[in-house]
Amino acid sequence: MKHISQKDINSFDRFYRGNLMNSVTGFKSANLLATHSKDGVDNVAIFSSVTHLGSNPALFSFVQRPLGHGVGHTYENLKATGKITLNHVNMNLIERAHQSSSKYNSEISEFEELQIEKISRDGFIAPFVKEANIQVAGEYVSEYLIEENNCILVICKITDIFIIENIQHEDGWLDLGKAGTLTINGLDGYAVAKTEKRLSYAQVDKELEELSLKTDA
């Protein structure tokens, strides 16, 4: 196997190192996070750092890069309104979603600039991405500064979920492959998620069983 040492890593230019480090830890989620600014501008941007944090309460997190230099509109809008939506990226959205990582001015709506159709639902401040097959509404909970790199770990609570028909099993599990959800390899590699197998809850001294992938709901 090829060995890349700490010395090698330190010697790489930032783009090479960024591509390496963003892919070596594995596939990541591809989500469009949408917010609404205090000035009435709808913002949407792709994030690959969304992580499930727990089911009760239902929490997710995302990492906000150091503020400034044209970044942080999602974070600033979330802090101002307390509301956000999480929308799964699929093949229909891939190019426009990727382009949303550009550093647009805060007065420009990526929805309009990139022709990403939105849904404004009654009772929700932040808009949803219409073409997303899984849409989640969330609320700001807290944040933690990561002192080692000045990034911010932002914690949100899930309040509402909207999903297309025929992707949820009777035990609650969502078939993301059937939903067309993409994953991200590194910074710019997009892959189609396909579920090959489900296994029963792991217990000591109990043999695993394969669960059906047939959607019942």
What is the CATH architecture term? Roll
Give the DSSP E fraction (strand runs of 2 or more residues).
Answer: 25-35%
Query: Distance N terminus to C terminus?
Result: 45 Å
What integer is the average pLDDT?
A: 94
The succession of helices and strands, N to C, reads HHEEEEEHEHHEEEEHEEEE
User: What is the CATH homologous superfamily assignment?
Assistant: Electron Transport, Fmn-binding Protein, Chain A
Could you write a compact summary of the structure shown?
The protein is an alpha+beta fold and 217 residues long. The protein has one domain (28-211): Pnp Oxidase, Chain A.
Description:
- With 217 residues, this protein is an alpha+beta fold.
- It has a single domain, classed as Roll (Pnp Oxidase, Chain A).
- It is 18% helix and 34% strand.
- It has 6 helices and 14 strands.
- The protein has a 7-stranded antiparallel sheet with strand order 3-2-6-9-10-5-4.
- Strand 7 and strand 8 form a beta hairpin.
- The longest helix has 11 residues.
- The termini are far apart.
- The mean pLDDT is 94.
